[in-house]
Amino acid sequence: MESGKTRRLGRIFRDDGKTVVVPMDHGVPAGAIEGLADIRRTVNHVAKGGADAVLVHAGVAKTVDTAHLGLILHLSGATRLTINPNWKTQLCSVKEAVRLGADAVSVHINVGSDHEQIMLENFSRILEECDDYSIPLLAMMYPRGPKIQDEHSYDVVGHAVRLGYELGADIVQTNFTGDVESFRDVVNSVRVPIVVAGGPKANSASECLRTVYESVKAGAAGVSIGRNVFQHQDPTVMTRAIVEIVHSESNFGTAISGTAEKSETVLAGP
């Protein structure tokens, strides 16, 4: 990999090859949801908790200080008010991401959607721009469409991840399959880092942390968790718990048991 991408990836991944990303791109599809109304404050909370990077849209990147965090600029989006919310369109250019000091860009593709081909075509153009600017591309590859009965099943998650890898993504973000063994097979089918998405708000902090633990145990290079962090009653504490699991492999068991004990108090969350 060329030095430009290597340097930028080094601002997202630590020396252990792992990362904790907190995505805060939810304002485009859903508006100023709980936890993101004061996004500057939330960014400060996750930075204090030890997050490695945040993922935001261009407007936020222009107005919020992310100097102590890796910056991933999200290029895709659609509002939940449209008739086709799963049809993600390009909202920002790679050139603008470079201007804003981004360390990587991300693109969302719903594999299996009615507009999959259009999103894939757009992805290929963005990938070429990324190579021109030597900036890494994170591909959010989610199985989501009329033929998808279970977005977490091994077959469709494995296919989505392999598609992102085959197309040239530098990082692939996807759903956890629900168990270590099947997700390890997904990870082993590609030669790029796999980051696990946090998904909807979990029933408890310990449930979210268990997913983090099992994902990394299966070989994931990290996690990208939004709502389960920024909608928690203490985003700093929740971020710190995730960071401990991802970056301190020898302490996984201790972290899980410790945070489970706290789940009714500090880590309970709303």
Question: What can you tell me about this protein's structure?
Answer:
- The protein has 270 residues and is an alpha/beta fold.
- It has one domain: TIM Barrel (Alpha-Beta Barrel).
- The protein contains twelve helices and ten strands.
- The strands form two sheets. The protein has an eight-stranded parallel barrel with strand order 1-2-3-6-7-8-9-10, surrounded by six helices. A two-stranded antiparallel ribbon has the order 4-5.
- Helix 7 links the parallel strand 7 and strand 8 (171-174).
- The relative contact order is 0.14.
- The mean pLDDT is 92.
Main sheet record = 8 strands, parallel, barrel
Give the structural class: alpha/beta
The CATH top-level class label: Alpha Beta
Total helix count? 12
Radius of gyration: 17 Å
Mean pLDDT: 92
Care to count the β-strands? Answer: 10
Overall spatial form: globular
Number of domains: 1
The third-level CATH topology is TIM Barrel
CATH architecture annotation:
Alpha-Beta Barrel
Unreliable parts: none
Pattern of helices and strands: HEHHEHEEEHEHEHEHEHEHHH
- Amino- and carboxy-terminal Cα gap: 43 Å
Percent of residues in helical segments?
A: 40-55%
Q: In percent, how much strand structure appears in the residues?
A: 15-25%
Q: What is the spatial order of strands in the main beta sheet?
A: 1-2-3-6-7-8-9-10
